[in-house]
TrEMBL record:
It comes from the Eukaryota. This is FAD/NAD(P)-binding domain-containing protein. It holds the Pfam family Pyr_redox_3. GO terms for molecular function: flavin adenine dinucleotide binding; monooxygenase activity. The lineage of its organism: Eukaryota, Fungi, Dikarya, Basidiomycota, Agaricomycotina. InterPro entries: Auxin_biosynth/cation_transpt (IPR050982), FAD/NAD-bd_sf (IPR036188). Keywords: Oxidoreductase.
Amino acid sequence: MDTHGIASAWLTKLSSYLEQKDASGFTSLIHSHGWFRDLLVFTWNLRTLNGQGQISKYSSANIGSTTISDVQLCSDAYFKPGSGDQPGSVSSGFTFSTSVGNGRGLFTLTQVSSDSGSEWKAFNLLMALESLKGFEPIGAEQGVYHGQSFSWSEVRENRQRVTEEDLQALVVGGGQNGLQVAARFQQMGIPTLVVEKNARIGDQWRKRYPSLTLHSTKQYHTLLYQPYPQNWPRYTPRDKIADWLEQYAVSQDLFVWTKSHPLPTPSYDPKTKRWTISIDRDGQITVIHPKHIVLATGTLGEPYVPDIEGRDLFKGQAFHSEHFPGGSSFAGKRVVVVGTGNSAADIALDLHVRGAEEQTGARQLFRTNSQNSDWSSNRTFYGQRQAYTRRTGSCRDERNFGPGGAGLLPLAYEDLSGKSALFKLCIIHVERSLQDTIKSGTGIQKFSENALVLDDGSTLEADAIVFATGYVHRRSVTKKIFGDVIDKTGPVYNIDEAGETRGGYRPTGHPGLWYAPGDFEASRFGSRLLAIQLQALELGYMNL
């Protein structure tokens, strides 16, 4: 199959229709049940559309105000034309220009029958703005400053002073998301300061249970601009990721205040378009005036521990998994772990290895080169995955395939939005041989002096109980700082009517306030879109 010829012929038609601003022709190139994802190209928003009806309406309303030219097929190894994921399909990347920016696109073509024979149509089409013209990423510097008359420390001190005097963006939170957003902003010329409440960057990882190891491979949790060494472990342990984040902040020359957190209640001046926000910097109060505040304080809020009758009667220890000190403290003791997420599984295994007699309570519904792959993974989203699962419904069993059958990622988005109640239990008793027996549909009724009493009347005797039951929604935490301002913002996470995650890396409903939620990949990809929006606002291309 001549994948290059097929992709080139289809892209030539796309280029012609875009340059002519022909919405009908543009729509005709997409499969009748196809998907179009627009990230800041046709509008200054993020949209996912399905089917020619939606796509025709959207393109008719917006293609006339969008000037697109210089559409070129990619020739690099990763994005050049080739066979797609589905048998008989063709995928490729392409680049293009708008009147204000540089864009990148991806498409997957499938062959469909027609009266005149067969045609290639796009089942997936992604078009995204990659940078604004004249504001492309800075890239690597020469490393020589003022003819070598200035030392690096002098250069850095001067840059930090200038940044703090005319601060464009304040990033609250120095975890992986906050640091990647700051690194992206810096590369795109946006003066940025990060404030982190802990004493050291990476402490949010160091304070978690000792046996924690990331459950995604290193390719998935790679940081922007800074890949891991070739001999880095496939799955990164807690302390290594903590130290790597600390080193990342240094090597990316980020401006970070540790032992620092915002105080209630920031105020926004719509005339100057700046915030007034007080920062407690290790006991010293500093008032700053950024144009934008990006909340990268984590997707989750405070630890959630269910309110169970009789807790005061229990003579043992009962605490959330966030405070689990490691299995060594419980050698020879009976421990019940409530939950079956990653934390519960890790803690149960740690207890088993350290010699504790662990039992695990399980929820009935189980919630259990990177930048190039980020483009590919973002070509499709929630709606398409949901539709695919529906078409394969006959193969499904009683496992939880997420909201509408869209999979675990949208399930996480829905849960993190605060919509779902998670606490339904079945009980898994993990024997020392790790042979599991499952008793499903059973919840916890109450505590007794030395056990948990289940709904079916059985008991789990315990010296300690670890609740790996997740966290409350982040909104309740941010409202403590921002007060009524948070009421003016929309929800974060879940999926909106446009097929995109709510709130993250896009306008929140309040000017100058942004969220950067999600995992490593979310901030690697989303930080670019967020930076472009901040630049577009500054240049007058975009209005809120």
